[in-house]
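Two proteins, back to back. First:
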Amino acid sequence: MKKIILITFVGIIAFLLSCDDSSNKSNDSSNDPVSEEQAKLNESLNPVAIGLTGDSFGTDATIAHNGAPLTTDETIRDVYTNLSEGESIRVGTIFTKHTFLKGEQGRKSDLVVTFAMIKREAGYYPDGGDWEYVKMPNDGTNNYLQNPNGKLPTTEDNINRGKIVACASCHQHPLAGSDFVFTY
């Protein structure tokens, strides 16, 4: 009787050890590229330029912010990155730009939209500097405590994310500096 119990016990242990635990992995967000990318966006909080207003290049620009064509003098912008000071741009670099309406006495008012640029591998979008451009309108659907830089749209949303010509054309500005990156 002891042998049967021992053989049964060993059989159960062997069965349990051989089971594939992939059902548990599907609930693990660390294996989910969308969750990983959102986490990287959320961590991109190193300030680059805070309180920008006006046009640093001496020419007025009108930028569509959440459907409203606002000039740079009508907005205040805060720019952040995931780079540490002195670090070079590489694949995975993220820049975000929070765009606020300029309120009374030139102070920040409502957040209108957050933009992001995510550096992709060479060949992703050569005409856009191999950056993925992202637009995240502040339409009330994002919890900014949970996602301080906005909620990434799905990769299928090619209006607000991807190889956006309007973004790339502005970032090709001859005074923009290197790698399509500048604060405006």
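And the second protein:
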Amino acid sequence: MRELIIDLDAIAKNLQTMRAKTNGALALAVVKADAYGHGMIPVAKKLEAAGADYLGVADVHEALQLREAGIDLPILAWLHSADENFNSAVDAGIELGLANVEQLNRVAKAAQHVGRVARVHLKVDTGLGRNGASVSEWPEVLKTAHGLVAEGFIQVVAIFSHLSCTSEADDLRQIERFESAFAEAKAAGVEFELRHLTASDGLLRYPQAHYEMVRIGIALYGLSPFVENTAADFGLIPAMTATAKITQTKRVAGGEGVSYGYLHRTAAESTLGLVPVGYAEGLPRNATGKATVSVNGKNYAINSRVAMDQFVIDFGDDEVEAGDAVTIFGDPAAGVPSADDLAAACDTINYEIVTRMGGRFKRTYLGEIA
């Protein structure tokens, strides 16, 4: 009675659409956070078949899950706990994004322990203020990396960073800092194959910063990285449709309160329909009174309180019955609300909407790789 329909063919098409916007750069497909809520393993298998060059995840646990599922593509993981044991990652050939000397030394010990050279990407903080070596730390990171390469423990695959996408001026300043950082790496004798800086947003805005590889995240799933642009503006197809079936309808008199707090009262005799999706499935509670859903080709407001397991729609005199499908969001080209619509109603972004969808939703895949 609750279903997330994931169109894997759309994801494959989105990969090709975004790849075509680069000048031959390698494509790292980001599948962290369970592929932004779309299901990491089925999505990764589809992307591997569709020709992605790399997969990207946040942590080693996600990367190892991909290897256990039989994914052979290069995989990069870049967010590590302070006590991360890198042995399994190095042994599985996971490439590691590293940001400081301590991480480098621990990865080198893991490489020595398992008898395999660790492939690493050195991350410099160019202004986002999150993960990455600061400008003052960067020389020591490079010196340490150079020494560990000479000892045969690591191979530096790439230099990378991440844009803040605060403004064009800020981004251009970060691009300049990034170019200084990899120039410094070359001067320190650190050899590397790749540079990667842009994610979906930077890929679309700064072709001069594509370098040898781009990281494609939200755009893979058919969503725009910009609130001022739709997915269709970039030729992207939304991959997730969130649906449910009405479990109960009933006729009630006018003036009746509906759900917790009576935030909505019927204006006249009306038909109420119960939808079995709530915040346990990831539908934000603050969608109440702001968001709409689609039933039988018509949009209806979520006027009653979104509860843990359900919400109620006031259908007035419209014909509706138990079992009718409710589209919470999907492809707006089909005339239904989009993830962007729900995000705007809830004062958040489309990334959060799709990533949080789960709970008791059943996932159904179109175009799945066996």
